[in-house]
Model the fold of this input.
Amino acid sequence: MATLSSLSLVTTRAVANVPDTTVKVPYLNQPWKRVSQLGCRRMQAFRAVRAAPDGISEKVEKSIKEAQEACSDDPASGECVAAWDEVEELSAAASHARDKNKDSDPLENYCKDNPETDECRTYDN
Amino acid sequence: MEVSTVYTTQALNSTCSISTPAKTHLGSHQKQVVFYRRTTKSGSGGGSCVITCSAGDSQTVVIGLAADSGCGKSTFMRRLTSVFGGAAEPPKGGNPDSNTLISDMTTVICLDDYHSLDRTGRKEKGVTALDPRANDFDLMYEQVKALKSGVAVDKPIYNHVTGLLDPPELIKPPKILVIEGLHPMFDDRVRDLLDFSIYLDISNEVKFAWKIQRDMAERGHSLESIKASIEARKPDFDAYIDPQKQYADAVIEVLPTQLIPDDNEGKVLRVRLIMKEGVEHFSPVYLFDEGSTISWIPCGRKLTCSYPGIKFSYGPDTYFGNEVSILEMDGQFDRLDELIYVESHLSNISTKFYGEVTQQMLKHADFPGSNNGTGLFQTIVGLKIRDLYEQLTSSKTAAPLEATKA
Done:
Protein backbone atom coordinates (compact mmCIF):
# COMPACT_ATOMS: atom_id res chain seq x y z
CA MET A 1 0.00 0.00 0.00
CA ALA A 2 1.46 3.35 -0.96
CA THR A 3 2.35 5.42 2.07
CA LEU A 4 2.79 9.11 1.62
CA SER A 5 5.11 9.92 4.48
CA SER A 6 7.77 11.05 2.08
CA LEU A 7 5.57 13.71 0.47
CA SER A 8 5.23 17.06 2.14
CA LEU A 9 1.72 18.02 3.01
CA VAL A 10 0.93 21.69 3.02
CA THR A 11 -2.28 23.17 4.27
CA THR A 12 -2.22 26.64 2.84
CA ARG A 13 -5.88 27.52 2.78
CA ALA A 14 -7.18 30.06 5.23
CA VAL A 15 -10.89 29.61 4.86
CA ALA A 16 -12.97 31.63 7.22
CA ASN A 17 -16.45 30.94 5.92
CA VAL A 18 -16.35 27.34 4.81
CA PRO A 19 -18.84 25.30 6.83
CA ASP A 20 -17.42 23.17 9.56
CA THR A 21 -15.58 20.31 7.90
CA THR A 22 -13.31 18.31 10.08
CA VAL A 23 -11.53 16.94 7.01
CA LYS A 24 -8.43 18.93 6.19
CA VAL A 25 -7.41 19.29 2.57
CA PRO A 26 -3.65 18.90 2.28
CA TYR A 27 -1.98 19.98 -0.93
CA LEU A 28 0.79 17.78 -2.26
CA ASN A 29 3.82 19.27 -3.92
CA GLN A 30 2.67 19.14 -7.49
CA PRO A 31 5.06 21.18 -9.60
CA TRP A 32 3.22 20.40 -12.81
CA LYS A 33 0.10 22.17 -11.61
CA ARG A 34 0.23 25.93 -11.97
CA VAL A 35 0.20 27.79 -8.67
CA SER A 36 -2.21 30.33 -10.14
CA GLN A 37 -4.81 27.59 -10.59
CA LEU A 38 -4.69 26.79 -6.89
CA GLY A 39 -4.94 30.48 -6.16
CA CYS A 40 -8.05 30.84 -8.29
CA ARG A 41 -9.69 27.91 -6.63
CA ARG A 42 -8.99 29.48 -3.25
CA MET A 43 -10.82 32.58 -4.40
CA GLN A 44 -13.71 30.49 -5.61
CA ALA A 45 -14.13 29.10 -2.11
CA PHE A 46 -14.91 32.49 -0.68
CA ARG A 47 -17.33 33.26 -3.46
CA ALA A 48 -19.13 29.95 -3.63
CA VAL A 49 -19.99 29.53 0.02
CA ARG A 50 -22.96 31.84 -0.18
CA ALA A 51 -24.02 30.84 -3.71
CA ALA A 52 -26.02 27.74 -4.55
CA PRO A 53 -23.87 24.81 -5.61
CA ASP A 54 -23.11 25.04 -9.29
CA GLY A 55 -19.90 24.32 -11.06
CA ILE A 56 -18.23 21.00 -10.92
CA SER A 57 -16.00 21.62 -7.90
CA GLU A 58 -18.95 22.41 -5.71
CA LYS A 59 -20.71 19.31 -7.02
CA VAL A 60 -17.74 17.16 -6.08
CA GLU A 61 -17.66 18.56 -2.59
CA LYS A 62 -21.38 18.09 -2.13
CA SER A 63 -21.30 14.53 -3.43
CA ILE A 64 -18.48 13.59 -1.04
CA LYS A 65 -20.51 14.83 1.91
CA GLU A 66 -23.57 12.93 0.72
CA ALA A 67 -21.55 9.77 0.26
CA GLN A 68 -20.13 10.05 3.76
CA GLU A 69 -23.63 10.46 5.14
CA ALA A 70 -25.03 7.56 3.12
CA CYS A 71 -22.28 5.28 4.27
CA SER A 72 -22.49 6.17 7.92
CA ASP A 73 -25.69 4.08 8.14
CA ASP A 74 -24.63 1.01 6.19
CA PRO A 75 -21.26 0.79 4.44
CA ALA A 76 -22.22 -2.19 2.30
CA SER A 77 -25.54 -0.93 1.01
CA GLY A 78 -26.29 -0.07 -2.60
CA GLU A 79 -26.86 3.59 -1.70
CA CYS A 80 -23.41 3.92 -0.20
CA VAL A 81 -21.73 2.30 -3.20
CA ALA A 82 -23.76 4.34 -5.67
CA ALA A 83 -22.91 7.53 -3.78
CA TRP A 84 -19.16 6.86 -3.95
CA ASP A 85 -19.50 6.00 -7.63
CA GLU A 86 -21.06 9.41 -8.14
CA VAL A 87 -18.10 10.99 -6.34
CA GLU A 88 -15.75 9.17 -8.69
CA GLU A 89 -17.72 10.25 -11.78
CA LEU A 90 -17.77 13.89 -10.71
CA SER A 91 -14.07 13.85 -9.81
CA ALA A 92 -13.30 12.52 -13.28
CA ALA A 93 -15.48 15.22 -14.85
CA ALA A 94 -13.75 17.87 -12.74
CA SER A 95 -10.34 16.61 -13.80
CA HIS A 96 -11.33 16.71 -17.48
CA ALA A 97 -12.70 20.21 -17.07
CA ARG A 98 -9.44 21.29 -15.44
CA ASP A 99 -7.44 19.85 -18.34
CA LYS A 100 -9.68 21.51 -20.90
CA ASN A 101 -9.33 24.89 -19.22
CA LYS A 102 -5.59 24.46 -18.93
CA ASP A 103 -5.25 23.88 -22.67
CA SER A 104 -7.63 26.51 -23.94
CA ASP A 105 -6.21 29.84 -25.01
CA PRO A 106 -8.90 32.54 -24.99
CA LEU A 107 -7.48 34.25 -28.08
CA GLU A 108 -7.33 31.03 -30.07
CA ASN A 109 -10.89 30.17 -29.09
CA TYR A 110 -12.16 33.59 -30.18
CA CYS A 111 -10.25 33.45 -33.45
CA LYS A 112 -11.58 30.02 -34.28
CA ASP A 113 -15.04 31.50 -34.50
CA ASN A 114 -14.14 34.95 -35.82
CA PRO A 115 -11.14 34.70 -38.13
CA GLU A 116 -11.89 37.93 -39.98
CA THR A 117 -11.58 40.27 -37.01
CA ASP A 118 -8.53 42.48 -36.70
CA GLU A 119 -6.96 40.52 -33.86
CA CYS A 120 -7.16 37.30 -35.78
CA ARG A 121 -6.06 38.21 -39.26
CA THR A 122 -2.95 36.44 -40.49
CA TYR A 123 -0.74 37.58 -43.32
CA ASP A 124 1.34 35.15 -45.31
CA ASN A 125 3.47 37.44 -47.46
CA MET B 1 -11.12 -3.11 -64.99
CA GLU B 2 -14.61 -2.27 -63.97
CA VAL B 3 -16.10 -3.30 -60.70
CA SER B 4 -19.85 -3.12 -60.63
CA THR B 5 -21.74 -3.60 -57.40
CA VAL B 6 -25.40 -3.29 -56.55
CA TYR B 7 -26.35 -0.74 -53.94
CA THR B 8 -29.44 -1.03 -51.81
CA THR B 9 -31.33 2.10 -50.87
CA GLN B 10 -30.34 1.68 -47.27
CA ALA B 11 -26.69 1.97 -48.13
CA LEU B 12 -27.31 5.26 -49.89
CA ASN B 13 -28.49 6.83 -46.67
CA SER B 14 -24.96 6.80 -45.32
CA THR B 15 -22.57 9.69 -45.30
CA CYS B 16 -23.10 12.16 -48.07
CA SER B 17 -21.15 15.30 -48.62
CA ILE B 18 -21.69 18.03 -51.16
CA SER B 19 -18.34 18.94 -52.63
CA THR B 20 -17.09 21.10 -55.45
CA PRO B 21 -16.00 18.95 -58.39
CA ALA B 22 -12.36 19.87 -57.93
CA LYS B 23 -12.12 18.29 -54.53
CA THR B 24 -11.35 14.61 -54.62
CA HIS B 25 -11.16 13.57 -51.06
CA LEU B 26 -12.23 9.99 -51.48
CA GLY B 27 -9.46 7.44 -51.16
CA SER B 28 -8.89 4.54 -53.43
CA HIS B 29 -10.90 2.16 -51.32
CA GLN B 30 -14.12 4.13 -51.14
CA LYS B 31 -16.85 3.39 -53.61
CA GLN B 32 -18.23 6.44 -55.35
CA VAL B 33 -21.70 7.31 -56.52
CA VAL B 34 -21.96 10.61 -58.32
CA PHE B 35 -25.14 12.56 -58.89
CA TYR B 36 -25.60 15.68 -60.93
CA ARG B 37 -28.39 18.02 -59.90
CA ARG B 38 -29.71 20.73 -62.18
CA THR B 39 -32.64 22.05 -60.18
CA THR B 40 -31.77 23.83 -57.00
CA LYS B 41 -33.63 23.59 -53.73
CA SER B 42 -33.82 26.78 -51.74
CA GLY B 43 -30.61 27.43 -49.91
CA SER B 44 -28.47 24.86 -51.69
CA GLY B 45 -26.70 27.34 -53.97
CA GLY B 46 -27.14 27.99 -57.68
CA GLY B 47 -26.08 25.92 -60.65
CA SER B 48 -25.14 22.29 -60.75
CA CYS B 49 -23.24 20.67 -57.96
CA VAL B 50 -21.76 17.25 -57.63
CA ILE B 51 -22.93 15.22 -54.71
CA THR B 52 -20.63 12.36 -53.92
CA CYS B 53 -21.74 9.77 -51.45
CA SER B 54 -19.60 7.09 -49.98
CA ALA B 55 -22.20 4.42 -50.29
CA GLY B 56 -22.00 1.15 -48.44
CA ASP B 57 -18.68 1.99 -46.82
CA SER B 58 -18.52 -1.24 -44.90
CA GLN B 59 -14.87 -0.82 -44.05
CA THR B 60 -15.26 0.78 -40.66
CA VAL B 61 -12.75 -0.79 -38.34
CA VAL B 62 -13.99 -1.01 -34.77
CA ILE B 63 -11.59 -0.87 -31.83
CA GLY B 64 -12.62 -1.42 -28.23
CA LEU B 65 -10.82 0.11 -25.23
CA ALA B 66 -11.76 -0.89 -21.69
CA ALA B 67 -10.52 0.66 -18.47
CA ASP B 68 -11.81 1.89 -15.16
CA SER B 69 -12.40 5.58 -14.61
CA GLY B 70 -9.22 7.59 -14.07
CA CYS B 71 -6.97 4.98 -15.69
CA GLY B 72 -5.70 6.70 -18.79
CA LYS B 73 -8.33 6.11 -21.45
CA SER B 74 -8.36 9.76 -22.51
CA THR B 75 -4.58 9.89 -22.78
CA PHE B 76 -4.58 6.71 -24.84
CA MET B 77 -7.27 8.14 -27.11
CA ARG B 78 -5.26 11.27 -27.74
CA ARG B 79 -2.16 9.25 -28.57
CA LEU B 80 -4.12 6.93 -30.84
CA THR B 81 -5.82 9.69 -32.81
CA SER B 82 -2.47 11.44 -33.11
CA VAL B 83 -0.92 8.37 -34.78
CA PHE B 84 -3.53 8.66 -37.50
CA GLY B 85 -2.96 12.36 -37.83
CA GLY B 86 -5.03 15.34 -36.83
CA ALA B 87 -6.43 16.36 -33.50
CA ALA B 88 -9.63 14.82 -32.27
CA GLU B 89 -12.24 17.34 -31.18
CA PRO B 90 -15.82 17.25 -29.98
CA PRO B 91 -18.37 17.63 -32.79
CA LYS B 92 -18.62 21.28 -33.79
CA GLY B 93 -21.90 23.04 -33.17
CA GLY B 94 -23.30 20.24 -31.07
CA ASN B 95 -23.78 19.69 -27.38
CA PRO B 96 -20.73 21.15 -25.62
CA ASP B 97 -20.82 18.35 -23.07
CA SER B 98 -20.65 15.66 -25.73
CA ASN B 99 -18.21 12.87 -24.98
CA THR B 100 -17.57 12.09 -28.62
CA LEU B 101 -14.29 13.00 -30.32
CA ILE B 102 -14.01 13.28 -34.09
CA SER B 103 -10.90 13.58 -36.25
CA ASP B 104 -10.33 12.92 -39.96
CA MET B 105 -9.96 9.20 -39.70
CA THR B 106 -11.33 8.31 -36.29
CA THR B 107 -14.40 8.80 -34.19
CA VAL B 108 -14.22 8.00 -30.50
CA ILE B 109 -17.45 7.10 -28.76
CA CYS B 110 -17.69 7.00 -24.99
CA LEU B 111 -19.81 4.06 -23.87
CA ASP B 112 -21.17 6.06 -20.94
CA ASP B 113 -23.60 7.40 -23.54
CA TYR B 114 -25.38 4.04 -23.40
CA HIS B 115 -26.28 4.33 -19.75
CA SER B 116 -29.90 3.31 -19.34
CA LEU B 117 -30.12 4.94 -15.92
CA ASP B 118 -29.00 8.49 -15.30
CA ARG B 119 -27.37 9.59 -12.06
CA THR B 120 -30.60 9.95 -10.08
CA GLY B 121 -31.90 6.68 -11.47
CA ARG B 122 -28.77 4.88 -10.32
CA LYS B 123 -28.93 6.48 -6.90
CA GLU B 124 -32.53 5.34 -6.47
CA LYS B 125 -31.76 1.80 -7.48
CA GLY B 126 -28.48 1.76 -5.57
CA VAL B 127 -26.38 0.62 -8.57
CA THR B 128 -23.09 1.97 -9.81
CA ALA B 129 -22.26 2.84 -13.41
CA LEU B 130 -20.12 -0.31 -13.44
CA ASP B 131 -23.19 -2.50 -13.06
CA PRO B 132 -24.54 -3.92 -16.34
CA ARG B 133 -28.06 -3.07 -15.18
CA ALA B 134 -27.22 0.60 -15.68
CA ASN B 135 -26.31 0.15 -19.34
CA ASP B 136 -28.35 -0.54 -22.46
CA PHE B 137 -26.34 -3.21 -24.26
CA ASP B 138 -29.03 -3.81 -26.90
CA LEU B 139 -28.80 -0.22 -28.10
CA MET B 140 -25.00 -0.35 -27.94
CA TYR B 141 -24.95 -3.44 -30.11
CA GLU B 142 -27.43 -2.06 -32.65
CA GLN B 143 -25.64 1.24 -33.06
CA VAL B 144 -22.12 -0.20 -33.25
CA LYS B 145 -23.37 -2.71 -35.80
CA ALA B 146 -24.99 0.08 -37.81
CA LEU B 147 -21.87 2.23 -37.76
CA LYS B 148 -19.74 -0.73 -38.73
CA SER B 149 -21.89 -1.35 -41.77
CA GLY B 150 -21.81 2.28 -42.82
CA VAL B 151 -25.10 3.64 -41.47
CA ALA B 152 -25.21 6.86 -39.45
CA VAL B 153 -26.91 6.69 -36.04
CA ASP B 154 -28.47 9.02 -33.50
CA LYS B 155 -26.51 8.26 -30.41
CA PRO B 156 -27.70 9.42 -26.97
CA ILE B 157 -25.45 11.69 -24.94
CA TYR B 158 -24.75 11.13 -21.26
CA ASN B 159 -23.85 14.47 -19.73
CA HIS B 160 -21.20 13.87 -17.06
CA VAL B 161 -21.67 17.33 -15.60
CA THR B 162 -25.42 17.18 -15.00
CA GLY B 163 -25.71 13.40 -14.82
CA LEU B 164 -28.63 13.40 -17.25
CA LEU B 165 -29.22 11.83 -20.63
CA ASP B 166 -29.22 14.61 -23.23
CA PRO B 167 -30.89 14.56 -26.67
CA PRO B 168 -29.06 12.37 -29.19
CA GLU B 169 -26.40 13.54 -31.65
CA LEU B 170 -25.84 12.28 -35.15
CA ILE B 171 -22.76 10.11 -35.61
CA LYS B 172 -21.61 9.37 -39.12
CA PRO B 173 -19.69 6.17 -39.77
CA PRO B 174 -15.96 6.90 -39.73
CA LYS B 175 -13.06 4.93 -41.12
CA ILE B 176 -12.05 3.91 -37.62
CA LEU B 177 -14.53 3.73 -34.77
CA VAL B 178 -13.16 3.51 -31.26
CA ILE B 179 -15.51 2.62 -28.44
CA GLU B 180 -14.05 3.38 -25.06
CA GLY B 181 -15.55 2.88 -21.65
CA LEU B 182 -16.21 0.41 -18.92
CA HIS B 183 -17.95 -2.34 -20.88
CA PRO B 184 -16.84 -2.63 -24.51
CA MET B 185 -16.18 -6.35 -24.19
CA PHE B 186 -18.88 -7.23 -21.70
CA ASP B 187 -21.64 -8.09 -24.15
CA ASP B 188 -20.63 -10.92 -26.50
CA ARG B 189 -22.48 -9.50 -29.48
CA VAL B 190 -20.54 -6.25 -29.20
CA ARG B 191 -17.34 -8.20 -28.60
CA ASP B 192 -17.77 -10.01 -31.92
CA LEU B 193 -18.02 -6.68 -33.74
CA LEU B 194 -14.64 -5.54 -32.45
CA ASP B 195 -11.69 -5.90 -34.80
CA PHE B 196 -9.25 -5.24 -31.98
CA SER B 197 -9.65 -4.80 -28.25
CA ILE B 198 -7.43 -3.34 -25.55
CA TYR B 199 -7.73 -3.44 -21.77
CA LEU B 200 -5.85 -1.10 -19.43
CA ASP B 201 -5.19 -3.01 -16.24
CA ILE B 202 -3.95 -0.72 -13.48
CA SER B 203 -2.93 -2.34 -10.21
CA ASN B 204 -4.49 -1.12 -6.97
CA GLU B 205 -1.44 0.70 -5.65
CA VAL B 206 -0.88 2.56 -8.89
CA LYS B 207 -4.58 3.37 -9.21
CA PHE B 208 -4.58 4.83 -5.72
CA ALA B 209 -1.51 6.95 -6.47
CA TRP B 210 -2.99 8.22 -9.76
CA LYS B 211 -6.31 9.09 -8.17
CA ILE B 212 -4.55 10.97 -5.41
CA GLN B 213 -2.67 13.01 -8.00
CA ARG B 214 -5.91 13.68 -9.83
CA ASP B 215 -8.18 14.48 -6.91
CA MET B 216 -6.12 16.03 -4.15
CA ALA B 217 -6.41 19.48 -5.69
CA GLU B 218 -10.18 19.23 -5.47
CA ARG B 219 -11.77 20.88 -2.51
CA GLY B 220 -13.59 18.37 -0.37
CA HIS B 221 -11.40 15.41 -1.21
CA SER B 222 -9.06 13.84 1.27
CA LEU B 223 -7.02 10.67 1.37
CA GLU B 224 -9.84 8.94 3.20
CA SER B 225 -12.50 9.93 0.71
CA ILE B 226 -10.38 8.82 -2.25
CA LYS B 227 -9.64 5.51 -0.57
CA ALA B 228 -13.31 5.03 0.37
CA SER B 229 -14.37 5.75 -3.20
CA ILE B 230 -11.97 3.17 -4.63
CA GLU B 231 -12.97 0.53 -2.11
CA ALA B 232 -16.69 1.07 -2.50
CA ARG B 233 -16.44 0.54 -6.25
CA LYS B 234 -14.10 -2.42 -6.02
CA PRO B 235 -16.71 -5.22 -5.72
CA ASP B 236 -18.57 -4.09 -8.84
CA PHE B 237 -15.29 -3.49 -10.66
CA ASP B 238 -14.00 -6.98 -9.88
CA ALA B 239 -17.29 -8.57 -10.84
CA TYR B 240 -18.08 -6.79 -14.09
CA ILE B 241 -15.10 -4.89 -15.48
CA ASP B 242 -12.04 -6.93 -14.58
CA PRO B 243 -13.19 -10.17 -16.29
CA GLN B 244 -13.10 -8.37 -19.64
CA LYS B 245 -9.33 -8.60 -19.70
CA GLN B 246 -9.43 -12.24 -20.70
CA TYR B 247 -11.10 -11.27 -23.98
CA ALA B 248 -8.75 -8.44 -24.87
CA ASP B 249 -6.27 -8.81 -27.72
CA ALA B 250 -3.82 -6.56 -25.90
CA VAL B 251 -3.63 -5.80 -22.18
CA ILE B 252 -1.48 -3.00 -20.80
CA GLU B 253 -0.82 -3.88 -17.18
CA VAL B 254 0.66 -1.19 -14.91
CA LEU B 255 2.32 -2.23 -11.69
CA PRO B 256 4.65 -0.63 -9.14
CA THR B 257 8.33 -0.84 -10.02
CA GLN B 258 10.58 -3.67 -8.93
CA LEU B 259 13.76 -1.64 -9.44
CA ILE B 260 13.41 0.43 -6.29
CA PRO B 261 13.07 -1.61 -3.11
CA ASP B 262 10.28 -0.37 -0.83
CA ASP B 263 9.19 2.27 -3.30
CA ASN B 264 6.18 4.17 -2.05
CA GLU B 265 6.09 7.15 -4.37
CA GLY B 266 4.68 5.33 -7.35
CA LYS B 267 6.49 7.50 -9.86
CA VAL B 268 8.51 4.74 -11.53
CA LEU B 269 6.27 2.11 -13.08
CA ARG B 270 6.56 -1.41 -14.37
CA VAL B 271 4.41 -1.82 -17.45
CA ARG B 272 3.60 -5.09 -19.20
CA LEU B 273 2.20 -5.34 -22.68
CA ILE B 274 0.38 -8.67 -22.94
CA MET B 275 -0.34 -9.53 -26.56
CA LYS B 276 -2.55 -12.38 -27.61
CA GLU B 277 -1.08 -14.74 -30.17
CA GLY B 278 -2.98 -15.76 -33.25
CA VAL B 279 -5.00 -12.58 -33.66
CA GLU B 280 -5.65 -11.84 -37.30
CA HIS B 281 -3.68 -8.88 -38.70
CA PHE B 282 -1.85 -8.39 -35.40
CA SER B 283 1.70 -9.60 -34.92
CA PRO B 284 3.09 -9.08 -31.41
CA VAL B 285 6.07 -6.85 -30.72
CA TYR B 286 9.18 -8.74 -29.68
CA LEU B 287 12.76 -8.36 -28.52
CA PHE B 288 15.57 -10.22 -30.27
CA ASP B 289 13.50 -13.21 -31.44
CA GLU B 290 9.88 -14.26 -31.21
CA GLY B 291 9.02 -16.97 -28.77
CA SER B 292 12.24 -16.84 -26.80
CA THR B 293 12.63 -15.42 -23.32
CA ILE B 294 14.86 -12.38 -22.97
CA SER B 295 15.83 -10.10 -20.14
CA TRP B 296 17.55 -6.93 -21.28
CA ILE B 297 19.08 -3.97 -19.51
CA PRO B 298 19.91 -1.37 -22.18
CA CYS B 299 22.03 0.76 -19.83
CA GLY B 300 25.73 0.02 -19.99
CA ARG B 301 28.61 1.08 -22.14
CA LYS B 302 26.63 2.46 -25.08
CA LEU B 303 23.99 4.12 -22.97
CA THR B 304 24.23 5.69 -19.55
CA CYS B 305 21.01 5.88 -17.58
CA SER B 306 20.27 7.60 -14.30
CA TYR B 307 18.89 5.74 -11.29
CA PRO B 308 16.90 3.46 -11.33
CA GLY B 309 17.62 2.70 -14.96
CA ILE B 310 15.57 0.68 -17.40
CA LYS B 311 14.92 -3.05 -17.58
CA PHE B 312 13.13 -4.90 -20.35
CA SER B 313 11.97 -8.45 -20.60
CA TYR B 314 10.11 -10.43 -23.19
CA GLY B 315 8.79 -13.94 -23.32
CA PRO B 316 5.88 -16.24 -24.13
CA ASP B 317 3.32 -17.08 -21.48
CA THR B 318 -0.29 -18.08 -20.94
CA TYR B 319 -2.90 -15.60 -19.79
CA PHE B 320 -6.37 -16.86 -18.85
CA GLY B 321 -5.84 -19.90 -21.00
CA ASN B 322 -4.64 -18.00 -24.07
CA GLU B 323 -1.18 -18.08 -25.61
CA VAL B 324 0.37 -14.64 -25.20
CA SER B 325 3.67 -12.82 -25.57
CA ILE B 326 4.57 -10.40 -22.83
CA LEU B 327 6.86 -7.41 -23.33
CA GLU B 328 7.69 -5.67 -20.11
CA MET B 329 9.41 -2.39 -19.29
CA ASP B 330 10.43 -1.29 -15.83
CA GLY B 331 11.89 2.17 -15.27
CA GLN B 332 11.85 5.58 -16.89
CA PHE B 333 13.28 7.31 -19.92
CA ASP B 334 15.26 10.40 -19.03
CA ARG B 335 16.71 11.29 -22.38
CA LEU B 336 15.86 11.14 -26.01
CA ASP B 337 18.74 8.84 -26.89
CA GLU B 338 17.52 6.21 -24.41
CA LEU B 339 14.22 6.15 -26.22
CA ILE B 340 15.70 5.90 -29.69
CA TYR B 341 18.15 3.20 -28.57
CA VAL B 342 15.32 1.11 -27.16
CA GLU B 343 13.17 1.63 -30.23
CA SER B 344 15.94 0.46 -32.53
CA HIS B 345 16.07 -2.87 -30.73
CA LEU B 346 12.34 -3.62 -30.67
CA SER B 347 11.00 -5.64 -33.59
CA ASN B 348 7.60 -5.74 -35.23
CA ILE B 349 6.60 -2.30 -34.05
CA SER B 350 4.93 -1.45 -37.39
CA THR B 351 6.62 1.91 -37.80
CA LYS B 352 6.78 3.51 -41.23
CA PHE B 353 10.20 5.01 -40.65
CA TYR B 354 13.04 4.70 -38.18
CA GLY B 355 12.33 6.71 -35.05
CA GLU B 356 8.58 7.00 -35.48
CA VAL B 357 7.84 5.80 -31.95
CA THR B 358 10.28 8.31 -30.51
CA GLN B 359 8.81 11.07 -32.62
CA GLN B 360 5.29 10.27 -31.44
CA MET B 361 6.40 10.17 -27.81
CA LEU B 362 8.16 13.51 -28.15
CA LYS B 363 5.17 15.07 -29.86
CA HIS B 364 3.20 14.45 -26.69
CA ALA B 365 5.90 14.85 -24.09
CA ASP B 366 3.44 16.67 -21.84
CA PHE B 367 1.03 13.74 -21.65
CA PRO B 368 1.22 11.63 -18.50
CA GLY B 369 3.34 8.54 -18.95
CA SER B 370 5.51 9.97 -21.69
CA ASN B 371 8.67 8.95 -19.91
CA ASN B 372 7.78 5.36 -19.08
CA GLY B 373 6.27 2.17 -20.42
CA THR B 374 2.68 3.43 -20.40
CA GLY B 375 3.37 6.03 -23.06
CA LEU B 376 5.69 3.73 -24.98
CA PHE B 377 3.27 0.81 -25.14
CA GLN B 378 0.27 3.01 -25.84
CA THR B 379 2.16 4.51 -28.79
CA ILE B 380 3.19 1.06 -30.02
CA VAL B 381 -0.38 -0.24 -29.75
CA GLY B 382 -1.51 2.83 -31.70
CA LEU B 383 0.93 1.95 -34.49
CA LYS B 384 -0.23 -1.69 -34.43
CA ILE B 385 -3.81 -0.51 -34.82
CA ARG B 386 -2.79 1.61 -37.80
CA ASP B 387 -1.12 -1.46 -39.29
CA LEU B 388 -4.23 -3.53 -38.60
CA TYR B 389 -6.43 -0.91 -40.26
CA GLU B 390 -4.25 -0.82 -43.36
CA GLN B 391 -4.23 -4.58 -43.62
CA LEU B 392 -8.01 -4.78 -43.19
CA THR B 393 -8.78 -2.10 -45.76
CA SER B 394 -6.40 -3.50 -48.34
CA SER B 395 -7.81 -6.99 -47.89
CA LYS B 396 -11.36 -5.70 -48.30
CA THR B 397 -10.61 -3.88 -51.55
CA ALA B 398 -8.80 -6.95 -52.86
CA ALA B 399 -11.84 -9.15 -52.32
CA PRO B 400 -14.33 -7.52 -54.75
CA LEU B 401 -11.66 -7.28 -57.45
CA GLU B 402 -11.01 -10.98 -57.09
CA ALA B 403 -14.73 -11.69 -57.33
CA THR B 404 -15.06 -9.92 -60.67
CA LYS B 405 -11.96 -11.61 -62.03
CA ALA B 406 -13.41 -15.06 -61.36
Q: What stands out?
A: Residues 158 and 165 of chain B are 5 Å apart (CA to CA). The longest strand of chain B covers residues 310-319.
